[in-house]
Amino acid sequence: MAVNSPIPVAADLKPVAGIELGHAEAGVRKANRKDLLVMKLAPTATVAGVFTTNRFCAAPVQVSKAHLEAAEISGEPIRALVINTGNANAGTGEAGLAAANATCEALANLLGCHAAQILPFSTGVILEQLPVDRVTAGLPQALRNLNEDNWFNAAEAIMTTDTQPKAASRSLTIEGRSVNMSGISKGAGMIKPNMATMLGFLAIDAKVSQSALEQMVKQAADRSFNCITIDGDTSTNDSFMLIATGAGELEVTSVESPEYAALAAAVTEFSQQLAQMIIRDGEGATKFITVTVEEGKDVAECRKIAYSIAHSPLVKTAFFASDPNLGRILCAIGYAGIDDLDVSTLDLYLDDVLVAKSGGRNPEYQEADGQRVMKQSEITVRVKLARGTADATIWTCDLSHDYVSINADYRS
Amino acid sequence: MAVNSPIPVAADLKPVAGIELGHAEAGVRKANRKDLLVMKLAPTATVAGVFTTNRFCAAPVQVSKAHLEAAEISGEPIRALVINTGNANAGTGEAGLAAANATCEALANLLGCHAAQILPFSTGVILEQLPVDRVTAGLPQALRNLNEDNWFNAAEAIMTTDTQPKAASRSLTIEGRSVNMSGISKGAGMIKPNMATMLGFLAIDAKVSQSALEQMVKQAADRSFNCITIDGDTSTNDSFMLIATGAGELEVTSVESPEYAALAAAVTEFSQQLAQMIIRDGEGATKFITVTVEEGKDVAECRKIAYSIAHSPLVKTAFFASDPNLGRILCAIGYAGIDDLDVSTLDLYLDDVLVAKSGGRNPEYQEADGQRVMKQSEITVRVKLARGTADATIWTCDLSHDYVSINADYRS
Lengths: 412, 412
Description:
The structure is a homodimer.
Chain A: E1 19-24, E2 36-41, E3 46-51, H1 59-74, E4 80-84, H2 93-111, E5 118-122, H3 132-144, H4 151-157, E6 166-174, E7 177-186, E8 199-204, E9 207-208, H5 210-222, E10 228-229, E11 239-244, E12 251-252, H6 258-280, E13 288-296, H7 299-311, H8 313-320, H9 327-334, E14 347-350, E15 353-357, E16 360-361, H10 367-374, E17 378-384, E18 390-397, H11 401-409
Parallel strand pairs in A: 4-5, 8-11, 9-12, 10-18, 13-17
Antiparallel strand pairs in A: 1-2, 2-4, 3-11, 6-7, 7-8, 13-18, 14-15, 14-17, 15-16
């Protein structure tokens, strides 16, 4: 059960004009589960994305990046995205690239476009060849299901060890014109995105120029999917895609326009919601932790310290146990690798409780106060460095027995 | 039960002339357990050490570093080390420094020397003030116990969550002169030393000049305690001390001498044994894993990749489960942060089994072969980068349910 994150209600998920979703049970790894998704786009759509920085980036990531570049040169728009679970098609060498390309070709034939107009995505086990025949055999079923009102099934179709689907919709008005957005994400483990999360797809019905969309997706990712971590493992398949179908009222032609600023802010906030859903449903998560580092010299050092806290197995197990063993947080700050950090000016808060003051235990601090906060399901750790004006926030979860169980048993 | 690491037999631990050890039950945190150790040194002894790089380094670490520097200037030798468990005296500010100094003064009064000739060490809970009165009240008991033949009790007296004492002895002959060495270490959690482990003490009866000893301890630490990791948490209290009592036959006056080379090699190998004992008894450890990265451009990138593998919770849980989910290792290599890493030339071995070849799954690789190795209690992961001649080795353990249990319950 995800932390304070109810399962989305299908009726709350709204269509975004210009995008249809179709799912299938292709049996990629297991029978009788939704494991294939096609997202078909209107020809007016623009697409931009950010991808994993893992050097072992998966074959579909390599192909998607190449197809996005090709689309920009040829002017032939991306017409569909195809996502399979059950197999990541990573660490699969030339055969893996051939499998990702074959998937694109099969879908292009069915849709009547070129293979380069398809973006493929995979998630699941690494180092095993993709059973591409099962994927292509499932495509007709997915196309028969194509429907604008199919976001809930789409969210289910991209789940792996997620305990629940992750999806949301929003409508807003910008400069008098309505904008509708829906998005889905998946996560659960191997989550410390460095460019984007495992998989996130966000569609808006505005018409957005390619260059503006590219800036918007980076801006949103840097403040959402790139601020979460479950276990520090940056996946081989992380991808976050922003789709602007162009079928709605709003048009954004330049990053200097007021429409851009308003839409980018809304997309960023919506992306944070989708990203936080991943943490709330992190493998074995029982708590949602916000780590904020303030008054640093620059954002980089604030992030370094925040990640050091968020990745410490000792800090994470203390959260799981609701044990205010808060010296572990100071320890993680100390080894974050900031060589000139003067800890004698540093304050540490747990929600509103001042735990450490000027680098040492706050004389007023009472264990009962720390205990009270540690028992909550949502906790904010706040570090004040007193050496600058920069800050950063990272969202994470605790480390529980279930994380070990889930990952010890993942393939069985 | 530690992995392939039997409990040392007291009779196998040999005295090192020039060092006496005395323990006490001081009740620092809990009653009726050995939690205080005094190591009294002959006036001929030289002492050198390496300490944690954690910016929140503990009060006793700060005092020990200052006393080592003072001894070098004054020429007054270090006469004793005093170690307490149950409280790390870290994150304790000015009061913590005063407590560490008070411990030194109390012991100096009892031994008839200056406080600056005492080195204090603490291990245990962070962010709580050291009950210094209990420590000083326990000193007379420890001094009554002083004995050259007390290494087993000494090893027990520095344990925290360790499941068994860690100690060993060796005798060898260098240039026709006998050398005797005994050492103890402790670890268990918060272990990713960056200069040294939680606590390690190694005594030899050779006479070694201060400058040669300082080089020797760095050389040994870099190839032993600085090559182990349990959970990536670099403690606030890590200290590794090398003591040369000067009471034996061998004398080392310069780092250029053949005696230095032979003794440094023996000390390094012995340090590796003590360091590996910590991993074999890592919190919840069921497997001992050696990660070797070869053919790198430099040692730094080899270590970076080795640590990335050794710290990945997904890799560690796969080892725990004996599950050859080896794509997780490729994933960890990929996100190690080597920007120009070309994975297409990379090979991955699990013991003798070639799992990945030229960056993809080895076509000859059979799951059964990976399964066979994963079931072993000792496993070597070998990565060949094919881009240089450097290599590095890191020792680590798996991540089990017991790690979570131990650290969720540590203070209770």
